[in-house]
Structure formats: structure tokens, C-alpha cells
Amino acid sequence: MLFNSAIFLGFFALVFSAYWLLRQRIVAQNMLILGASYIFYGWWDSRFLILIAASTACDYICGLGVAGPRFARFEKFKAIGLMLGVTILVTLPNLSRDYLILCGGIGGALVLAAFFFGLEQFSGPVRRKAYLTLSILLNLGLLCTFKYFGFFTESLVAAFNSIGLQVHAPMVHILLPVGISFYTFQTLSYTIDIYRKQMKPTTRLVDFAAYVAFFPQLVAGPIERAKKLLPQFQTPRVWDGDKIQSGALLFLWGLFKKIAIADNVAPLANAAFADPASTTPSLMLIGVLAFSVQIYCDFSGYSDMARGLARMLGFDLMLNFNLPYFSRTPSEFWRRWHISLSTWLRDYLYVPLGGNRGGKIMTYRNLMLTMLLGGLWHGAAWTFIAWGAFHGAILAIYRMANIDRGLASVPARSGQGILVHGAAWGVMTMLTLIGWTLFRAETIGEAWTAMALMGEAVTSGAIITTLPMLAQTKTLLFYAAPLILVQLWQRFSGELEFLVSPLDGRSGSMVQRFAHFNVLLAVLCGAVFLAAEDVQEFIYFDF
Q1: What is the pLDDT of residues 11-49, one digit of tens each?
Q2: How many folded domains does the chain comprise?
């Protein structure tokens, strides 16, 4: 069920109406959210619900366990009951096809129950660590099995075959559950934060299950920390017309970015990367530029829509993008791009590895490891690993050269500052495009070919003589122009929600109210008349 589909709009309208009819009945509202979220997630394949129920059951109990004090056995039965109930409901309608899944789900629930009761035999710090270990092993085990098993098996077989050892391992092609990378990181942060004594566990399973499966951000983030979002499920949500209006406008802008920009420039990127060896330098450069626009509008558009939907239900999700293409250094880029992931990697990987506390060499090592795993998080492919390694390397180089500190010492508004900061932005833009080439290419070889073609386009002068004449250039500029104008306005005004706060239709002068109306009308008409004919899934659904 895609946000940019008519069926989802009808689905949300029903959920929205029923949700607010329940007024401030928190438990009933949370139960409605949980049911709606399971319907939303099961729309792709209902069998995926078994995995999210298993993750929910495990981390609910593990959260209670790592807190320290012993808890009632009834909590274990509730969690196991959730997993068993979801397994039976999902498999019974087509039992002949899903019989093995039913058996596996029941078996998994029994094994999980055995672990829960077995861990109660420990006490003190050992018991807390045991519960934390169970949470980490189960979540990462599910993620590795469904996302990386085939990739690593194929890579291992290829490595043996390359040195003359013929190995034939069974290749198991497992369907990747939508959003598994997002909700596993989300539930992991819950148990880790409780272990660190940064929050207390909840004893209401429905609250925790609704937090894990919250449909606006379930399949592509933002990756919300439990200590921020879970308390919002435990407090009354009050009808606020201003928030509902601003949420709807935020959703509209995200929808526009997706269907009117990302989906329209996608064919340019697809054509360039379909066969890089036969693509001209100019068209390859256009393809990379188009992909940089596509992935930003696709992913930030989803994040805006998720935040808008959540706000209309009374929830506040974190900002996931903050004008990343204005970045001048790699560290600034990662403070602005996919903020929920970059801060997660910082807090749960980079800092535990030692961060910058162990000297320069260890700091560079920690940066590389963090970004390598961040690249692998995006997908089971060597191109993603190379993309992570590339960003790790430039982070280390910039840190080694103290470029961030040097830029901070130069006033941006001075004559020298404009040149220095402008040059730094230009270099970072080129590095970002190189990174997107690795990210988009199917293989490392195709990525090298694409980068060579881009370099040829720049050095040969084609960027000046040929690029402006191409129809693809005009297409890219036409669809990217609204984004560029809005981003420039956001950058210099400091207002990120340009449809909401800066042009509030109920305040300001007559000119401001008139401008607000026309901007809103333009975005609405653009979403209707410029929408791409082919409805495409969001890019990050694959991760």
C-alpha cells in the first residue's frame, strides 16, 4: 500500500475518522493504530507480520528483562500470545500453502518462550546482559537471514571458485520483508536504551506493539527512538486543527516531491545506468544528476509524508532531512541526510566502538567500520559496501585535514568566505555525485565506467557545449526547478516547512496570504497534473 496511491488515501481517511472519534481513549486509539498498521504492512505480504510480531514479542520481554527487576509471568504469556495469534491469523486462510510457516511460527514462539523462562534462572547483571544478548541476536539474526544470507553465500562461492575450488552451495532466495532494516534498528534501540538506563520499559504491550508497527514510518523511517516516540503513545493526543492542517500540507509537499519530481526524473537515471558502457558522457552526467534529485525527492518525500500523517494523528516524528545538498563537508552531509540513521549509527555503533576517544588511528578505524556497516545496511551488494567505504574514507580524510574546523574559522559572509565556502560546497557536491554513482550502479565495474564517463564529460568541455543542447537536460531542469527554488528559499529563510509556517494563511499581510494561497494552489495542481504516469515504489522500500 503506497502513500501515493488512491487506496492508501481511502485507508487513511477511515483510520483518521475512527481514530479521532475515539477522542482521548488512549488504549482504544493505540489498538486502532496497531490494527491499522498490521493491515497496512500485511498488504504487501501478510506473512511478513509474523516477523514483526516476533521482533515485538522478543523486545517487549527483553526490555522488561534488561531493566533489572523481575516481572510477572503474565507478561511473557502476553508476548508469546501476540506472536502465536498473528501466526495463526496469517496462515489459516491459506493453510495448504503456509503450513510450514505455521509450524515454523509456532516452533519459534515455543523456542522464544523457553528462552524467556530460562533467562529467569539468572540474576543481577548476568540476567540483564542475557536479555540484551537475546534481543540483539534475534533482531540481527532475522535481518541477516532475510537480507544477507543469499548475498554472503553467493559471494563465498564466487570467492572459492575464483581460486579454482569448485564449491556448490545451495542457493536459497528469500523474499526481503519490506522495512525490516528500519523496524529492527528501532526495536534494538529500545532494549539498548533501557540497558543503559536511559529510559524505563513499558508494561503495556499494545503501546509497544503500536510503536514498533506505527504505519506512517514503519517501512521507510524515520528510525524513531523509543524514548522519544513511545511516550507519545502513553499520553493523550488532543485534537489540534493547526497541527492537522500543517500535517496535511507537509504530506502534500512530500507527495509532490515523490510523484511530480522523483518519478519524472527516474527514467533519465534508469536510461543512463541501464548500460553504462553504451551511454555517452553527457547522458551519464545527466543520469547521475537525475538520480541525485530522484533519491532525495523520493526519500525525503516519504519522510515528509510520514511526518505529516503522524502529525495528523497527534504524533511528532523527527526531522530526517535538513537541506543535505547545501553541505560543504562529509560530516555536515551526514548531519543533514537521513538523520535518523546517521544518529543511530553514531550512538549505537560509532560511540561504542570508541568514537574519537582512542587516538587518531582508532578514530579513522571507527569511522570506516561505521560507514561500511551503514553502507551494508542499505542493501546486500558490493556497490553499497563500496559506497559506505567511500563515505568513510572522505570522512577520515576531511577529519585528518581539519577541514571542518578550518571552514568554521572563515566568516561565510566575507568576500574570502564566499569563495572558500563556495569551493568547499562545489567539492562536496562532486563527492556526493561520485557516491551516488556507486550507490546506483548494479556492479562495481559499471560504477567505474559511469565515473569515467562523468569525468570525460567534465574534462572534454561537453558539460558546456553539449549538455545544454540535450532534451534530457531540459527535462531534468523542468522537473527539478521547483525543488531548487524551494530549497534556496528554505536555506536563506531558515524555514523548512515552506507550505506551513512562513506563509500562514491566517496571519501576515494581504500579500502574504495571497502568496500562500497561490503557492499552495501551484503545489496542488503540480501534484495532479505533473504526476508521472507510472506509479513507482519508494526507493528505500528495498532497504
Answers
A1: 999 999 999 999 889 999 999 999 999 999 998 888 889
A2: 2
48 and 143 belong to one structural domain: yes
Name the residues annotated as catalytic.
Answer: 378
- Quote the Cα angle for 114-117-119, to 5°: 105
Looking at the fold, whether 267 and 229 belong to one and the same domain comes out as no
Say whether both 212 and 249 belong to one domain: no
What is the reported pLDDT for 109?
Answer: 86
- Asked if 304 contacts 253 with a C-beta cutoff of 8 angstroms, the reply is yes
For the question of whether the overall pTM of this predicted structure is more than 0.70, the answer is yes
Q: CA angle 310-315-316, nearest 5°?
A: 95
Name the domain boundary from 237, 271, 286: 237
**CA-wise closest residue to 104 among 89, 92, 87:** 87
Residues 433 and 293 in one domain: yes
Q: Which of 237, 256, 290 is the last residue of a domain?
A: 237
Q: What is the pLDDT of residue 164?
A: 67
Grid cell locating 33: 493504530
**Nearest alpha-carbon partner for 296 in 495, 494, 435:** 435
Q: What is the per-residue pLDDT across 110-168, written as a single tens digit (0 to 9) for each? A: 888 888 888 888 888 899 999 999 999 999 988 888 887 776 676 666 665 667 666 66
DSSP 8-state assignment for residue 348? I
| CA Rg value for the chain | 25
Task: Write the CA distances from 511 to 489, 492, 504, 514, integer angstroms.
Answer: 17, 20, 11, 5
How far apart (Å, rounded) are the C-alpha atoms in residues 394 and 403?
11
Measured over the CA atoms of residue 305, residue 307, residue 311 and residue 314, the dihedral's sign is positive
d(CA 301, CA 359): 39
Same domain for 249 and 382?
A: yes
pLDDT tens for 394-417 read 999 999 999 999 998 888 888 888
In a domain, 211, yes or no: yes
Which range marks the domain in which residue 144 is found? 24-237
Cα–Cα dist 302/307, whole Å: 9
Helices (H), 120-219: 124-147, 149-162, 180-195, 205-213
Domain-located, residue 100: yes
Residue 519 lies in a domain: yes
Give the single-character DSSP code of 542.
Answer: G
Q: Does 2 reside within a domain?
A: no
| pLDDT, tens digit, 9 for 90 and up, residues 496-512 | 887 775 444 455 567 76
Let me know whether 333 and 403 are in one domain. Answer: yes
